[in-house]
UniProtKB/TrEMBL annotation:
One of its GO terms (cellular component) is cytosol. InterPro entries: DapB_C, DapB_N, DapB_N_CS, DHDPR_bac, NAD(P)-bd_dom_sf. This is 4-hydroxy-tetrahydrodipicolinate reductase. The gene is dapB. It comes from Succiniclasticum ruminis DSM 9236. The lineage of its organism: Bacteria, Bacillati, Bacillota, Negativicutes, Acidaminococcales. Homotetramer. It catalyses: (S)-2,3,4,5-tetrahydrodipicolinate + NADP(+) + H2O = (2S,4S)-4-hydroxy-2,3,4,5-tetrahydrodipicolinate + NADPH + H(+); (S)-2,3,4,5-tetrahydrodipicolinate + NAD(+) + H2O = (2S,4S)-4-hydroxy-2,3,4,5-tetrahydrodipicolinate + NADH + H(+). One of its GO terms (biological process) is lysine biosynthetic process via diaminopimelate. NCBIfam families: dapB. Residues 2-119 form the Dihydrodipicolinate reductase N-terminal domain.
Amino acid sequence: MIKVLVNGAFGRMGSEVVRMVTANPELELAGGVDINAAGKTLPDGKPVFTNIGEALEAVKPDVVVDFTRPDVVMDSLRIILKKGIRAVVGTTGFTPERLAEVKELAEANNTAALIVPNFALGAVVMIKLATEAAKYFKDVEIIEKHHDQKLDAPSGTAILTAQKIGEVREAHKQGHPNERETLAGSRGGDIDGIRIHSMRLQGYVASQEVVFGSQGETLKIINDTINRECYMPGVAMACKKIGSRQGLVYGLDQILD
């Protein structure tokens, strides 16, 4: 049994993780951490904490699953990794500088951190298909749509998609060479010439559309998340496989068979 501590246990994703771990015969819920834990309970009377350091000392988990917020995740990871405990992270907002720090912490403490922009298996396949299509279609833009409570834009999935596409095509400016924005931001963000457009609306969970354009045709690769349950097979797989990894692992595709 793999003992799992859920950081952000009463959030939208954390609550799903708690249910998944409780129902999985290979995983054991060690407890939960949440700043809003006062007066709340977990299944089977598992302990609840408001402080990650206190939780780690009390329950000694094998893995911490973190679904908190971009502004607090690094503080938690510094504590988790320095104790030699493995981390599975679904919180987004990781810059290259943050990833470098996580890598250094994991290696220095002989442990591992798996950072996953998107745990949906469909999203992994979408990125693989987009990377393949980019070999034949040089022009591409990304439209990502999330619920209106998401704190960061663009999404980690959109950034990862652009980075993977950038590995197989040369960076270049798309559109008319003399185009100009009459309203700042109209053309979206830019990664190696790939434009990323972010939507934040009620009614969405998470969706992404990768649109390729060529002479006389377009190709669209779309992944729609209907509910948060779709992430749970990926989270379960991550909890089970992170024990055999060392250092920084970035992306669910890195642990797929």
